[in-house]
Specification:
Blueprint: H1 2-31, E1 33-37, E2 43-48, E3 53-58, H2 66-96
Antiparallel strand pairs: 1-2, 2-3
Helix pairs in contact: 1-2
Length: 105
């Protein structure tokens, strides 16, 4: 009977530790920067871990064709988003021990 209480206390401690680790991880991710580029590096994007675009650089030769430029910016932003998402997923696996917990991120 008391063995189960001990296990429950251990689980509660693990949950509390996981919650603290998740809060720390969220802070680290938000302050991280992720980079994305398009083929030819005509456009580059810097994005924070909380998906806020911090910087966009466009080479002068890319600005001549606005339609192509739109595609290049989209590609660079999507590249930065993919980089951030991959990083977040890796950190989540570390914190949760590989458990897939829906709704955490």
């Amino acid at each position: 009977m008391f063995g189960n209480l001990g296990e429950m206390a251990g689980l509660m401690k693990k949950a509390k530790d996981m919650k603290a680790n998740l809060a720390k991880m969220k802070e680290e991710i938000a302050s991280s920067e992720f980079y994305g580029t398009c083929p030819g590096d005509k456009v580059s994007v810097v994005m924070s871990g909380d998906f806020q675009v911090r910087q966009i650089k466009i080479s002068p030769d890319a600005a001549a064709d606005t339609e192509a430029l739109e595609d290049l910016v989209k590609t660079a932003v999507n590249s930065a988003v993919s980089s951030a998402q991959a990083n977040i997923q890796g950190k989540m696996k570390e914190v949760t021990g590989g458990l897939n917990i829906p709704g955490l991120f």
